[in-house]
Amino acid sequence: MHYALLGDIHSSKEDLEKVLADISEKAPEAVCVGTGDLFECIISKRDITKQKFTKLDDVMIIPEGFIELLTFLSVSGNQEDRILMITETDDPLREKLDSMPETVDIATAKIIHGHQWEWGGEPWALIHAEVNGSLVFYGHSHTSKLSRNDVNDAIEIGIPYDVSGNKVLVNVGAVVIDREWVLYDVLKNTVTFMKA
Length: 196
Fold this sequence. Notes:
It is built from three helices and 16 strands. It has helices at about 15-25, 80-85, 90-100, and strands spanning about 1-5, 30-35, 40, 60, 75, 105, 110, 120, 125-130, 135-140, 145-150, 150-155, 160, 170, 180-185, 190-195. Strand 1, helix 1 and strand 2 (about 30-35) form a beta-alpha-beta unit. The longest helix has 14 residues, at about 15-25.
């Protein structure tokens, strides 16, 4: 069983098309699962008021044909959370965003966007993650990363890495701009960082 994990798309249709084509070529049997931030909210955190928008395209980027590419399950990210916070509409897309789970379990792993954790510092990075399972996939920082017991491993594209052990965190990178994704081989218990 294989999973293709991808996230931080931020409404980039072109980058998503390239990544989905790469997944189809390199791992056609893989089940795609998203790590959140599928969409880009155009209202920044500091510009949020009590005003509620009734049209989604007033608060987010929705390229033509983009929604049709989102055929995979995904957790919600901070972009989806913000869109929900500032909108009130019965638009089916908003209902879809509202139904996105915060976490998803696949095989022996958990998927979360990661904005729920503590971030900060210079350079901005993950400070503390609440992790109960042994393998967690996440996104949020747009930086591909493999961490085991709070120690970051150097990674290379296309090389399988064993993800046995405790507190293994895998940042799947970003689809937007970087066109990155991760292939998770459940039987071999490996992850391979990929780039379209």
